[in-house]
Design brief:
single chain; 3-stranded antiparallel beta sheet; 12 strands; mainly beta
């Protein structure tokens, strides 16, 4: 049976209009060929018509959804735990913020901070994000929802001032 497998695979690879012949070799193993051998009894193999599989029609839900329609937006996306328009004392410039998001973060989505309009840190799926060694002074902070590297939605920016201890010489 094992020796017949390569021959059967060969049958599948040949064009539909080709003629196939089957015969037994000197060891009694079946051999398939496109040419009948000379001096050996061979029988012509009739191939069935090829199977044609039609694609499945889209489900009603998929058909109703336009392909270019963006994903549903989050109804709530905002930073919490940071004073808006006020000073934030962070002597080493490090602090954390929380993200309020509704509904919950969808699969394939992640969160990333934007500090002064520039991406800050790596995208994460957690709703508590850390900032480290932020310079003193006024800053803006936003959070964005990403699908891969594509930005889907941003929160409103929060303005705040970082106060750090300054030791003069």
């Amino acid at each position: 049976m094992r020796s017949a497998l390569p021959g059967l695979l060969l049958l599948l690879a040949l064009p539909a209009g080709a003629e196939i012949y089957k015969y037994l070799d000197a060891n009694g193993n079946p051999v398939f060929s496109s040419q009948p051998p000379e001096g050996v009894a061979a029988e012509r193999v009739e191939l069935p018509a090829p199977s044609i599989v039609a694609p499945q029609p889209p489900s009603p839900q998929e058909a109703a959804k336009p392909k270019d329609q963006p994903e549903a937006r989050y109804t709530r996306l905002e930073l919490t735990g940071i004073p808006d328009g006020e000073s934030l004392r962070a002597n080493n410039g490090s602090f954390s913020v929380d993200v309020a998001i509704e509904p919950r973060l969808r699969p394939g989505h992640s969160l990333r901070l934007l500090l002064d309009g520039q991406p800050y840190g790596q995208p994460a799926r957690t709703t508590r994000l850390e900032l480290v060694n932020v310079d003193r002074g006024e800053h803006s902070l936003e959070v964005e929802v990403l699908a891969g590297e594509h930005s889907l939605q941003k929160s409103a920016p929060i303005l705040f001032t970082v106060q750090r201890v300054h030791r003069g010489k």
